[in-house]
Amino acid sequence: MAPSDTPTATFNGKLALLLAMAMFVLVVDTSIMNVSISAVVRDIGTTVSGVQSAIALEALVSAAFILIGSKVGDLIGRKRAYVIGLLCYATGAIAMTLAQSLLPIIIFWAVIGGLGASLLLPAMQSLIHGNFHGAEQKRVYALVGASAAIAAAVGPLLGGLITTLLSWRVAFALEAVVIAVVLLGIKLVHDVPYTGSRQVDVVGSLLSVVGMGGIVIGILVWQEGGEAVGALIAVGVFGLGGLAYWLVRRKRHDKAVLLDPALFRSKPFRLGVSQQLLQQIALGGTMIVLPIYLQMVLGYNALQAGLSIAPLSLSMFAIAMLAGKRSGGRRPATLIMWGFLLLLLGLVILIPIVPRADSGWWLLVPLLIAGCGLGLLVSQLNNYTLSPISDERVSEAAGVNSAAGSFGLSFGLAFAGAIMLAALSLIFTSMVMSSTVLPADEKEQVAAVLEEDAQIMSNVELEELLVGQPADIQDEIIRINTDARPIALQLALLIPIFAALLGLLNTLRMRRVPDPPIATQSEGLVL
Q1: Residue 12, SS3 per DSSP
Q2: 378-409 pLDDT per residue, tens
Q3: What pLDDT sits at residue 225?
Q4: Over the stretch 472-489, which tens digit does the pLDDT of each residue have?
Q5: Contact predicate 88/116, CB 8 Å
Q6: CA-to-CA dists, residue 138 to 63, 131, 217, 228, 351, angstroms
């Protein structure tokens, strides 16, 4: 190793700030896309389902490759993996700035950007360990973690503000600028050599990608009306089952494995990972259907949608900070139980509110309640999951925890969004066909228009499309549009509600398990 690659003796504040900036961009990226859905759809002439699929695909790619990305960083060097990850993310941001159709968004933002995240997160964790030590390392973890939390809290507001006042393209261009600034400081980063085994579990890596990919892609194909949906999901289930068998078999023969199945012998770790999965399914489902609803039904622009969703993210941030510092003598399992209970309560309250809401203010109280629940979960789940793991294994365990969370996020985004849009299509068709006002020979055409165009239209925009039609026809189509959308959102909310309910039931098992001791390094590995 070159002399310049040795760790610095003094605290490198500039490097710490650059790492925090990189994390901020990673977290805020999806928030910008969520609140800008209608603007993106309108500007590039695509569909809500297409953009929603891209958002889910980005999370899926990150989940499917994050364990592999960690090993790639070991083999090519953590600093190089960090640079490649940043360049991939910059590529996605620039593609969003220039995109004129959905295809480059899927290729460059979702796939290449997702691959970048899978390289960047493990590499960043290793570089923090190698460039900072002792109390300084904790300071950097705190700074980077705070950057991620702030990005999650202000992301909807920031994305909405830039999109409304300027353009969503400007928001992504600013992401690319921030990444360029981070890359300009790359000389401050000292590489961290890897001294472990260089063997790669190729089969395990492929099975993990096929397993997670098959399930989520199957849902996205179903949403778009494609074929072989059952086969894709079956391949995914088979891939995950095959991965479990393969890991146990390889470990028994003392060969290199993608991840050590012995980690799952710890009951708190198993419970924690499953709860992380359920929390992210609930979060992903909520954060995709609400922006679509606000922009489709209420006709909100990105800023108004961001302001309406802000109570969820801001209360999550505030409670996570508060509970992380002042949990007192309360058991983590008890706080997690209250977290899922509040999350479930907030989502359930939304169900009767949705048909009556005529502004985002109606969502304030239930989103505050749900956000408080998410804040309790965020403050406890990572440390609960990683605390029983020894310091030697905690980095690997953190990778598994991150993969489970990212997969849950992609599943929630895909499934809740697919349910909402599929339900909307079916309800439109059913209401049109049963209408006594619409002429029989025009019903199929009206149903087709509502399915294809009204996905992204508020009633005001739909009225503009109907100019020239008889008044009774206009009124009937507006009525169908008004009645169908809340029902579709209610059905889609059942996905995060069910995930929160499962999480609450799972806490009954957690409370029967003794609290695990805290490992010395687990607090830092919350990236």
Answers
A1: coil
A2: 878 877 887 777 666 666 777 788 888 888 88
A3: 64
A4: 777 877 787 778 888 888
A5: yes
A6: 26, 12, 38, 49, 42
What are the tens digits of pLDDT across the range 332-351? 888 889 999 999 999 999 99
Whole-angstrom Cα distance, residue 281 to residue 63?
Answer: 13
| C-alpha 187: how far from chain center | 31
H or E stretch covering 44: helix 37-44
Whether the CB-CB separation of 83 and 96 falls below 8 Å is answered with no
Residues 282-317 have pLDDT tens digits of 988 888 888 888 877 777 888 888 888 888 888 888
Would you state the pLDDT for residue 460? 66
In degrees, to the nearest 5, what angle opens at C-alpha 453 toward C-alphas 449 and 458? 120
Longest CA pairwise span in the chain (Å): 82
| pLDDT exceeds cutoff 70 at 453 | no
DSSP state of 192: -
Q: Read off the pLDDT of each residue in 68-93 and give the average, rounded to a whole number.
A: 86
State the Rg of the chain over Cα.
Answer: 23
**Residue with tokens 């609450």, as numbered in its chain:** 504
What is the rounded distance in angstroms from the CA atom of residue 409 to the CA atom of residue 278?
9
Average pLDDT for the chain: 81
Reading the block at residue 180, the tokens are 């360029």
* 7 pLDDT above the threshold of 60: no
- Residue 216 CB-density burial (10 A; 0-12 exposed, 13-18 middle, 19+ buried): buried
Integer Cα distance of 84 and 445 in angstroms? 49
User: Which tokens hold the place of 355?
Assistant: 């048909």
Q: What is the pTM of this model?
A: 0.84
d(CA 301, CA 311): 17
Q: Residue 457 is encoded by which pair of tokens?
A: 């239209």
The dihedrals phi and psi of 46, each to the nearest 5 degrees, come to: -120, -160
What's the helix, strand, coil split of the chain in %, to 5?
80, 0, 20
Query: Residues 6 or more apart from 305 whose CB is under 8 A from it?
Result: 35, 156, 160, 291, 294, 295, 360
Give exposure, 101-113, as e/b (b: 16+ Cβ within 10 Å). ebebbbbbbbbbb
